Amino acid sequence: MIFLKLILTNLRRHRIRSLISVAGIAFSVAAMLTVVTILQGAIGMFSNILSNGSQVIVFERDVSDLFFSNVPAQAAEQISGWPIVAHANPVLFGIVSSEGHPIITCFGVTPADTRIQTAAWLQGDRSSFAQHADDVVLGTRAAEFLSATLGSHVQVGHATFHVVGVLKSANGFEDGGVFMPLASAQAFFHKEGTSSVVTVKLRNKDDAATFKSMVKAQYPNLIALEDTEFTRSYSQFKILKATAWAVGGCGLLLGGLGVANTMIMSVFTRIREIAILRVNGFSHGQIGGVIFGESAIVSISGAAAGLLIGTCFLYALKLIPALDGYVDTTLHPLLMLVVLLLALLTGIAGALYPAAYAMRIRAVEALRFE
Questions:
Q1: How far apart are CA 123 and CA 112, in angstroms?
Q2: Spatial CB neighbours of 321, under 8 Å, sequence gap ≥ 6
Q3: Is the CB of residue 115 less than 8 Å from the CB of residue 129?
């Protein structure tokens, strides 16, 4: 108990310095939590685009990005006819620009695609999709920034299309996208006879291993992955995750340096006090424990404040209409625990040198210190 009182007393005596360290850890934790959560949410939303109504994804082997993947139409047709397959839907991804809108995501899909069949249609009717080559369906956000409604003609890239429907999707990428008939998208992106992926639903999900073996045997240039496998192995997702943790790690490093600076200053201004503690029977370990205790309390307080700040910031982002659907505010307990542990370890690491210095102080020499 005496250690806790001593630690709290020392922190209260240097309130400003302690609060600055707490703030450094807090903003570092908030930055890490926000960046990691947003990027993980983006990864989850893109994964949901692929796993919508499917269990396995088939795409070209060894491509760096699905936008560069080419799955032959013949392969998609043959796969859909396999006995273990319930349905197989080819999807073509493309990115174009329009005046005032540098990036528009396009989806080339068939009328049987799950997105068309299960989405909430706010305007138009799903039976009208793909009746004509120039027909498109817009997500609600795409309809807003293109100022389009049912029956409008919109400029997408170098072509003009007729809007036959507006649908609402909880997925931000889909809600801001343009849905084209597959054949029209193939012609538009000059990828006739191919799709980016084939999303497959099996009659029995236990047949996934058999299905992947069949794809490997019959189409050596293609690869089939279950949704969870794809999320773990896709190179772009790995890059995003690594970037998120690297940015958060740099923030925590800066916070740790702030803690180290506070602890060093604390030790240097309390050399005579530490000497008195040594004279009164405190061991080297107890002196180090006081320093580590102060650092731990600063780190834990900063981490708790950072979680609160980060959570509030994420919910504030979600309230921005332009970001609705793109920001996932789901906070995973494991992520929060990892962030807390990293903050605590950062604070302890920042106290290593100050604690070692304090433990080496000799009482006789320290009492003469000015």
A1: 19
A2: none
A3: no
Residue 364 contacts by C-beta under 8 Å, 6 or more apart in sequence? 275
Q: For residue 18, which of 298, 324, 323 has the smallest C-alpha distance?
A: 298
- Give the 3-state secondary structure of residue 171: coil
Helix (H) or strand (E) holding 58, with range, is: strand 56-60
What per-residue confidence (pLDDT) applies to 285?
79
- Residue carrying the six token digits 């073509």: 92
Cβ 223 vs Cβ 61: under 8 Å: yes
Q: How far apart are the first and last CA of the chain?
A: 31
Nearest one of 207, 152, 162 to 184, comparing CA atoms: 162
pLDDT band at 166; cut points 50, 70, 90: very high
pLDDT (average), residues 189-205:
90
CA–CA distance, 153 with 253 (Å, rounded to integer) = 52
Cα–Cα distance measured from residue 324 to residue 170, given in angstroms and rounded to the nearest whole number: 9
> Do strands 135-139 and 159-168 pair parallel, antiparallel, or not at all (unpaired)?
parallel
Question: CA–CA separation, 198 vs 93, rounded Å?
Answer: 11
Tens digit of each residue's pLDDT (9 = 90 or more) over 130-161: 888 889 999 888 888 888 899 899 888 888 89
Residue 200 to residue 80: CA distance in whole angstroms = 8
Q: Which long-range contacts (CB under 8 A, 24 or more apart) does 131-135 make?
A: 131/164, 132/162, 132/164, 133/181, 133/183, 133/184, 133/187, 134/159, 134/160, 134/161, 134/162, 134/184, 135/161, 135/162, 135/163, 135/164, 135/181, 135/184
Return the closest-CA partner of residue 49 out of 227, 209, 300: 227
Written as six digits, the tokens of 57 are 């994804």
Question: How confident is the model over 282-339, as pLDDT tens digits?
Answer: 777 777 787 788 888 888 888 888 889 988 888 887 777 666 556 666 777 887 888 7
Determine the pLDDT at residue 365. 56
